[in-house]
Specification:
Blueprint lengths: L1 H9 L7 H12 L5 H8 L3 H13 L19 E9 L4 H11 L5 E6 L6 E7 L2 H12 L5 E8 L21
Antiparallel strand pairs: 1-3, 1-4, 2-3
Helix pairs in contact: 2-3, 3-4
Length: 173
């Protein structure tokens, strides 16, 4: 049975069962779990967890493991969202802007949008002066950018990188 399950993943048709979803949920909660600890949590042996984890990694469902750092104690106290409108709506201008973003360390996330704004950026900086430099000397200085609007986060109400795996469970599964 496990062999057929792995074959489906290798052909791009990923079919997850309840164990897979529990394994993914446990790793989202604590990525440092050993296969033994993972098995104890989800009711499988360490070797079964190892095989399943490896298959989920190979299928691209687990993209990596990393430490989550606390921004404020590190001195990164200002979180802002920046809406960017490009100066020209062409493929070349969009490619230049996207390539430029890779060099801007303060931008943690970037999204291409529909509507009046072309991109939404999430940026983390030390203070308002650093945000001013990012906006005026970095982003607005780039020739692909026409205008932008920034919003400073006053209070974070919720933060989660966890995917809603409960929505994937089939009734009775």
């Amino acid at each position: 049975m496990d062999h057929a399950w792995r074959a489906r993943i290798m052909h791009g048709s990923v079919e997850l069962d309840g164990f897979d979803l529990r394994l993914l949920a446990a790793l989202q909660e604590e990525a440092r779990l050993t296969n033994q600890q993972l098995g104890e949590r989800i009711g499988l042996s360490a070797s079964q967890c190892s095989r399943r984890r490896g298959a989920l990694e190979a299928a691209g469902l687990i993209r990596g493991y990393r430490a989550e750092l606390a921004a404020e104690p590190l001195g990164l106290r200002v979180l802002a969202f920046i809406q960017v409108t490009l100066s020209a709506h062409s493929g070349e201008n969009s490619r230049r802007f996207r390539a430029f973003l890779d060099s801007v360390e303060e931008v943690q996330e970037a999204y291409a949008l529909t509507g009046d704004t072309d991109y939404l950026l999430k940026a983390c900086v030390t203070d308002l002066a650093a945000l001013s430099r990012l906006v005026n000397e970095v982003l607005l200085a780039h020739d692909s950018v026409a205008r932008l609007r920034s919003s400073i986060v006053l209070e974070r109400l919720k933060q989660s990188a966890r995917l809603p795996l409960g929505a994937l469970r089939r009734p009775g599964g």
